[in-house]
Design a protein that fits this description.
The chain is mainly α. The protein has twelve helices and no strands. 73% of the residues lie in helices and 0% in strands. GO terms for molecular function: DNA-binding transcription factor activity; transcription cis-regulatory region binding.
């Protein structure tokens, strides 16, 4: 995790270091990425990086488990507790797809950690962020359950099933449609442009409709009193 000196950096310098570190780890494998390159890209002495992080793994761990998820949450947001739950969940899924399109480097950063040939410590980090993502999704579905919008006798099981549909399942649909592998999509502006807002909304709606028919209670929602 970052040392206190990192947080004392001027905001502009700190943001530049984070930006270039994300770029380095997204453009190269963990083994190929280097602190020297990050320092060069950020226009700072290499030794300065060690004033802010213990080593390369420490920096990568923070980016993968703290900074990237924070940036994604800021972009995607959480479904509003107001209004129809399934409509809000539909928007939530579409924003998740939009994140891949508009922030490919952050998506590549996470995808690289899932590579079975990656450093075992790196693969362990990927498992940790997946579990954290499941907990966030569970909190979203819990709201739907409390409002009576969905029926899930075991919310943990439901969360993993829903995560599979809107994660690997929806990704597979997109890749089949584009006729490309994930790394090709994340590296190609032209491929990502084919996944425009209209198509994302259509795919998100189809996925959420499938989930709703499986988990929907079929009863009117219990609205929050204002």
């Amino acid at each position: 995790m970052p040392k206190s000196t990192f947080f004392r950096l001027p905001e502009e310098r700190r943001a530049r270091l984070v930006h270039e570190a994300i770029a380095e780890f997204a453009d190269r494998t963990y083994a190929e990425a280097s602190l020297s390159q990050i320092a060069r890209r950020a226009n700072i002495p290499k030794g300065s990086v060690y004033q802010y992080f213990e080593d390369k793994l420490d920096l990568y761990r923070w980016l993968l488990t703290e900074e990237a998820p924070r940036l994604k949450r800021a972009f995607v947001g959480m479904p509003s507790p107001e209004g129809d739950f399934w409509t809000r969940f539909d928007d939530f899924v579409e924003r998740g797809m939009a994140f891949l399109v508009e922030h490919p480097r952050l998506a590549r950063l996470s995808a690289a950690a899932a590579d079975p040939t990656a450093n075992p410590e790196v693969r362990g980090l990927h498992k940790a962020i997946c579990e954290a993502g499941l907990q966030e999704l569970r909190a979203v579905l819990e709201v739907g359950a409390e409002r009576g919008a969905l029926h899930a006798p075991d919310l943990d099981v439901a969360t993993r099933l829903v995560a599979t549909i809107i994660g690997p399942g929806l990704t597979d649909v997109v890749l089949q449609e584009l006729g490309a592998e994930l790394h090709e999509v994340l590296a190609s502006d032209s491929l990502r442009k084919r996944l425009g807002p209209k198509r994302r909304r259509a795919l998100a709606h189809q996925a959420v409709d499938f989930i709703r028919k499986g988990l929907g209670s079929g009863k009117p929602e219990r609205r929050k009193e204002t």
